[in-house]
Amino acid sequence: MSVLLYDTTLRDGTQSEDISFTVEDKIHVAKLLDEFGIHYIEGGWPGSNPKDIEFFRSIKQHNLKNARISAFGATRRAKLTCDDDPSIQALLESEAPVACIFGKTWDFHVTTALQIELHQNLEIIEDTLAYLKKHVDQVFYDAEHFFDGYKANPDYALQTLQAAKRGGAEYIVLCDTNGGTLPFELGAIIEEVKKQIDTPLGIHCHNDSELAVANSLTAVKHGITQVQGVINGFGERCGNANLISIIPNLKLKMGIDCISDEQLRKLYHVSHSIRELANMAEWKNQPYTGKSAFAHKGGIHVSAILKNPDTYEHIAPEIIGNQRRVLVSDLSGRSNIQYKIEEMGLDIDINDPSVQELVNTIKELENQGYAYEGAEASMELLLQKSRGLVPDYFKLRGYRVIDERREQDKEPISEATVRVEAPNGDTYHTAGLGNGPVDALNTALRKALEQFYPVLNEITLIDYKVRILNTTVGTKAKTRVLIESTDGKTRWTTVGVHNDIIRASYLALVDSIRYKLYKENI
Amino acid sequence: MSVLLYDTTLRDGTQSEDISFTVEDKIHVAKLLDEFGIHYIEGGWPGSNPKDIEFFRSIKQHNLKNARISAFGATRRAKLTCDDDPSIQALLESEAPVACIFGKTWDFHVTTALQIELHQNLEIIEDTLAYLKKHVDQVFYDAEHFFDGYKANPDYALQTLQAAKRGGAEYIVLCDTNGGTLPFELGAIIEEVKKQIDTPLGIHCHNDSELAVANSLTAVKHGITQVQGVINGFGERCGNANLISIIPNLKLKMGIDCISDEQLRKLYHVSHSIRELANMAEWKNQPYTGKSAFAHKGGIHVSAILKNPDTYEHIAPEIIGNQRRVLVSDLSGRSNIQYKIEEMGLDIDINDPSVQELVNTIKELENQGYAYEGAEASMELLLQKSRGLVPDYFKLRGYRVIDERREQDKEPISEATVRVEAPNGDTYHTAGLGNGPVDALNTALRKALEQFYPVLNEITLIDYKVRILNTTVGTKAKTRVLIESTDGKTRWTTVGVHNDIIRASYLALVDSIRYKLYKENI
């Protein structure tokens, strides 16, 4: 048996209170999902906002390997025909090969929210689908509030599905929109639906009762073959069904084909990359991909794990790209480093004394708030520096940033100066303006360094992320800055931590520059 | 039907990587749980650490209303008698009226982890329970790895339960220790157990597959009458079964008696208080008790919620002490603004032209990157300013921030100056140092303003969040800053957006100050 995965991170996921993707973020997420083996990617709701229209235009220029792009929308408005309804037209203009539209199942919603007659709703469902069917490659129907609607009025709920079937829906997706349904109820209702509807069925769950994963699996157990969900369970209120948990549960525990073994090994990477793009705080205890998911603390557990990991692990962490952590100081440190060394393909013996020294250095830095996940370039610099393989390319003598707004209604000005000492002893004192203090600092720094390292003009900074660490002390909080750079060939990310955000940014900038020089073997 | 609630926040919950309670914290948690109506509180493992011994000594001086205190432990060591085993003796010395001990179910664990014969393990289980039964009021048995053990060797797994029964266990608790069991398997196995064991059964689940809540409910559906779990699902790896979700699911959805309606209204309070005591970061999307659990963002949802909250809520938030929130964002329209107006208790007609103007203003600001979700104070200021109800408390003439590091190995220094014009025309020019540029700016600004608005000295900044908006332009990216403030009575959050992070922070700081003055009717 196999199941199709339909991801709605870019649509329902963005309903989450704190998530707001740029178009570039959305493209990045779509490419990650495609590599991961997701079958359908719902890119947005073209009828509802201009950012989504831009995404659909842009994604066409990318060749996806596995996934088809889907556009979301609603059934036509009661007073308009499909030809006149701007939201329906926006779906067509998106040129997405798949359209997924939702309609009302629950009689109470038809009369209370839409305020139309029950039979009108059936006509709307049928003719919207029939219309789209003529223009779009595949059409899916999301039966909103299906389970609540079925409990309130089973006959009417099933009539809405019949209307969708007549309209030509290729999949009918049963939605637990309010997230209040229990697995036992859900399974029983699906069995009733199957007696009357032979269209393939999908499931779309929300996590308001902390049951979205269980409900999705239960639906599959009852024969449903399309699962809709969101990476990391992002979404409005308590979030959508979490694909990061559903996928390994399906594949490893229910033996259901959905993605390949190789794709499954990307689970950790996909989960963490999309969390970073969404700028959402870490969920350490996240099932499967959390940093603590395979971390062992209790003494009894640790000693058993050393004898055989199956004693306290439900799966082997490597299968999904995560790793075991044993929270016993120098054991965990060294194995982490070993893992990193192997990952970077470096030839260092784990028993080399420099490794133990490095473990201590990293521990100290981690105490200060450094984290090297996602900042592999800083990690590699640290590692190679401890082995004497990174020269002192320059000495930083000092810097100053002035950020000021002299008069009301004037834009602020940022000016930076830096003093840098070159290897030959010459000192360069340069100044630069910028779009904010960090940009000014970057300008001044590059002006100084490019005089003796012209190769640095290849670097462009492409991402800048700020995270506040200990948040209970207001503007005195410690800041972690991640900077992503490219030279057109590769990309690398560096990190800086300090309670002064300028200083933290400066540290990450300087690491980015050193990394480029190191990679060029200068 | 009724179910007994057995909380292990103070024992299994503290296995969480980041949780470390003091004895005072533990007493505080126990009292909260008691008021909440929990039946059994597992206070710790007296045989394993001195802090737990201190807790058991101390809790005896408190009169609990509902709960019995339980002490956790293991079956005796193979080479010792119960009289000689210090861990068993520590259980007795704790003087807890209930003892809950765990033993091995899985043959592989007996031979691999304990390294003893299978029959020896059965004798150990039976005689440990029999010994404790003579000294303690109630004795429970936790069958560790029960489901994995049953799948590996059902006969032996059931023999261990028979041994526990012979030993006199009042409850036999089936544990999904590794958290890898699916609800379907779990239900079927419990049915098999019930055929052979007539001792009352309990369930103890872990969340490694994001199924701990579903598994606990499934167990109850199959006749189990004691549920073990942890508040907020804290615990080792991915945590234990979350009582904060289990309790309302049992009571509101399965109609199972466990706590009173009045106690259920404390769910939000208990969840948040214990999170604070554990010093764990907020889980905004937490089912039932998260700040976002009843927050509505999409325009369609909001317009339906205004007609009837049942349209997009699975339960009424007041039942569990939470509340509804409506967010204003680029996905929203007039309905969200209307809801906000009502929430703030303002008397504004939605059809007032000022409202349409405000909607347009907000859309324009949102295009610039503003987001008012979580920044309700800035939203209220905007709304009231559009109606001429916020005076010009002061004019900001200009500011300057200098952030510099003069010499290598010196810490950076941040200095700010501001020029502010008071309503009477006087200009104040002040300076301040800080722990980073934003802190310096805050110091200088407050120094100026407190001269004519002394009430501002009540404000403390408690949180500072930075988000970079369009991330592909590196250090030129636009920055959104959220600042949370308090005056000891209430908390409010304000927002600022600019491509200069200093300027963005400054805008949020100034809004926070204006909001305080506005609220004081100055």
TrEMBL record, chains A, B:
Its EC number is 2.3.3.21. It catalyses: pyruvate + acetyl-CoA + H2O = (3R)-citramalate + CoA + H(+). Keywords: Acyltransferase, Amino-acid biosynthesis, Branched-chain amino acid biosynthesis, Isoleucine biosynthesis, Transferase. SMART domains: LeuA_dimer. It comes from the Bacteria. It holds the Pfam family LeuA_dimer. Transmembrane segments: none annotated. PANTHER family: (R)-CITRAMALATE SYNTHASE, ALPHA-IPM SYNTHASE/HOMOCITRATE SYNTHASE. This is Citramalate synthase. It comes from Desulfurispira natronophila.
